[in-house]
Amino acid sequence: GRLETEESVLQSINSNIQQAQELTIQAGNGVYTKDDLKTFASELSGIQQTLANLMNTRSEDGKFIFSGYQDSTQPYQFDSAAGEYTYNGDQGQHQITIAEGVSIKASDNGFDTFEKTNARLNVESNTASVSGSITAASVYVDGQAEFDKFHQANYNADPTALATANIYSVLVSPGATATDPQTYEIYRDGAALTPAVTGEVTDEPIDFAGMKIEFEGTAPGQLDFSLEKPGKENVLNTLQSLITGLNDGTLEGDDFQQVLADGLVQLQNASEQVVFTQASLGGRMNALERVSDSNLALDIQNKSNRSNLVEVDMAEAISELTKQETALQASQATFGRLTNLSLFDYL
């Protein structure tokens, strides 16, 4: 049935996502040439096409299983103008009645299964804006788990907040004397952090909340960067970005690692979203199986009851009924005689 088809498709999708993760990890080990990376891109392109086909699977009656209520609409198509895959279904879920008063969802749409995948949390740009005597600066996330916690705790998602609400600044100041080291302090929206985040400027990058901050120039000066708004990305577009990055022979160092980091985080998130859908589907299939088993047991009992009625030995039944009737008549006669006796009859 449709549920079994979906179960098989989701398993295949997750297997392909895991293959893509393995290839991405291999591509980032630093020993491959640009031609090697293009080979990885080609393999990922094959996986992407396989996933697109799976996500556009039809049920046995010819309907797209991930289109929601739009059964005749292909859910995923590549928009060549935008260079990305778009979802064309809706958020509907078909339902089927499995027993009187009991219904279950008979489908999962692509929006819930693939479009809700979290994109990697990041800064808006790896190139920070600079002022004063600071001439250039960069900010890269290199400790994802630490940065995720920081972003989730501090990002201001209030639509009425000022545009500067998520801007962080590193203010670099000269030392108290010519021989004292330069110092820095980090601000948010123009205000010092609490507790204060300060330090001495050295040749090493500034490490802050899972970010690696580097700059050129000298004090006094300032660099600014912003936390990126959280977003969503389906697995096909995650792979598209990976393929583009691996085919780009100019990306190196931190920029190349950021492409791989985006891919790995989002592939993992995509896998988890598919597993979540699989768990929900499994629960529904178990409910369907329980109702089916219950109906089967009831059917067997009904057949047994009908069989008992049909297969009665009529001669034996009549004989037994005659015995019971004779005994009943004798009992009634005795009771009648007893009730007609007076007290003197007992003396």
From TrEMBL:
**Under what name is this protein listed?**
Flagellin N-terminal domain-containing protein
The record, for NCBIfam families, names: flagell_flgL (TIGR02550)
Q: Name one GO cellular component term.
A: bacterial-type flagellum hook
Which GO MF term does the entry hold, naming one? Answer: structural molecule activity
The Flagellin C-terminal domain, residue ranges: 268-347
Q: Which InterPro entries match?
A: Flagell_FlgL, Flagellin, Flagellin_C, Flagellin_N
Q: Which UniProt keywords apply?
A: Bacterial flagellum
Locate the Flagellin N-terminal domain: which residues?
A: 1-70
Q: Which GO terms describe its biological process?
A: bacterial-type flagellum-dependent cell motility
- Any Pfam family hit: Flagellin_N
